[in-house]
Amino acid sequence: MNFGNRTPTIVVLKEGTDSSQGKGQIISNINACLAIQETLKPTLGPLGSDILIVSSNQKTTISNDGATILKLLDVVHPAAKTLVDISRAQDAEVGDGTTSVTILAGELMKEAKPFLEEGISSHLIMKGYRRAVSLAVAKIEELATDVSAEHQDSRELLERCARTAMSSKLIYANADFFVKMCVDAVLSLDRNELDDKLIGIKKIPGGAMEESIFVNGVAFKKTFSYAGFEQQPKRFTNPKVLSLNVELELKAEKDNAEVRVEHVSDYQAIVDAEWQLILDKLEQIQATGANIVLSKLPIGDLATQFFADRNIFCAGRVSSDDMNRVIQAVGGSIQSTTSDIKPEHLGTCEVFEEMQIGAERYNLFKGCPQAKTCTLLLRGGAEQVIAEVERSLHDAIMIVKRALQNKLVVAGGGAIEMEVSKYLRNYSKTIAGKQQLIINAFAKALEVIPRQLCENAGFDAVEILNKLRLAHSKGEKWYGVDFETENIGDNFSKFVWEPALVKINALQSATEAANLILSVDETITNKESGAPNAGMMPPQAGGRGRGLPMQ
């Protein structure tokens, strides 16, 4: 067959597929990431702003937590989603530094842009960045100070790290109160596991933030109760706690079964048997000597009144999450039958009480011997305020957890970034070629953190950065931005401490994200891949694999 000296069009991708490639494509992706960076920049640092986000269902969120903002922004650009992912990973791994990691990644891309426009290969830039980040991490590890030797009281170290993590949060005005709460919460966990999921957080609207309560054990909202619960005791000392997965409710079986009887007395015998079944269960529970009976399933009015007559407290329909934490705290185990309960199946605590907090009643188990869990009852005027308090505490708790596992700390307030930047600048002068420029660009990108801290605080960023460069060149390695004097100062001696792990993780994640964006040479958007008969017509020319007719 003669095609008139033209090669036939080869269709590889379906119709409706859009693709773009080359240098312009990388720069377009970088611009999308910079748009995300610009959104987060004003939220960095102790004097950063909060962002008000209104979702499609009109739910409002006020936050300055980078991971929360990016999660709620609903980013659709595929390259910009990378920044959302690294922010989320930083939040899950370390807990703090979510805004810093996004700003750093954006700045690394911004510094790479002029090189790309000049025609330098993206692989050369990536190689330089990888070299720079390995040098930076090694320098941070060298500079990091193990303060556990100097400060025998490790609690003091943890409180200082928590205070630094809270400095940019809504709760900083109440930092003294919440720092103690955070450290107590982490120290109550099992030292080997430090599972922060075992710290329960309950939000109770109303009251002031400082009315929040730390419970060294478990607290949960009072479950639905039937008539008769008013007569039950609401406080016990050293009670025995029985946890069940058994339904203690008398149900009319006429809905579930069919019984044929010849005499009325036969029907009465069946009803009596139903009653006897549940009464046997209740007597078996009473025989265990338990003072508190909890069940995941309903505890009906008959059982409630039976327990009230015998001075036993009961709560049915307890959520699985709360029940598991009760077991962790008081000991014992969940029983699925009442017929074979042994003393070792029961747990205990120092004090159990039911308290009125705000408009709700809460059941509190305090002073638990097995306590590998705790509960924070948070108060606050508005729902959004309590939600932001919870997010702030999460960050601080994660930082305390990491500081407990890894005692190495560095100075915050842009001090470590300036010192690493100076080190990389000096190192770049010892090598020749394009790598010198790229490592120097990496060093310049690190300065975005102290610069943004100054801008958000309303200081003269150019003046402060010049002073910092001068101080670091004279060997003042811990000098950073001092927000109290609106100048520079030794942040290490002022106890502005952060775990070295936070900085290392942020640098590595930011560099990986920047390199990932730089390595993407072509974007293919397959909009109509799911459509019937898609790809039957040859697409328009443009891009690799798009069926370009060859001359």
UniProtKB/TrEMBL annotation:
Q: Where is the composition biased (Gly residues)?
A: 542-551
GO terms under cellular component: chaperonin-containing T-complex
Is Kinase among the key words of this record?
Answer: no
User: What SUPFAM superfamilies has UniProt attached to this entry?
Assistant: GroEL apical domain-like, GroEL equatorial domain-like, GroEL-intermediate domain like
Q: Which Pfam families match?
A: Cpn60_TCP1
- The keyword Chloroplast belongs to this UniProt entry's keyword annotation: no
**Keywords tagged on the record:** ATP-binding, Chaperone, Cytoplasm, Nucleotide-binding
Query: Where on the tree of life does the source sit, at the highest rank?
Result: Eukaryota
The UniProt entry, under PROSITE patterns, shows: TCP1_2, TCP1_3
A single GO molecular function, which one?
ATP hydrolysis activity
Family matches, as Gene3D superfamilies? GroEL, GroEL-like equatorial domain, TCP-1-like chaperonin intermediate domain
Q: Where in the cell is it found?
A: Cytoplasm
Q: What does this protein do?
A: Molecular chaperone; assists the folding of proteins upon ATP hydrolysis. Known to play a role, in vitro, in the folding of actin and tubulin. In yeast may play a role in mitotic spindle formation.
Task: Please name the PANTHER family in this protein's record.
Answer: CHAPERONIN
What is the recorded name of this protein?
T-complex protein 1 subunit eta
Name of the gene: NCAS0B07830
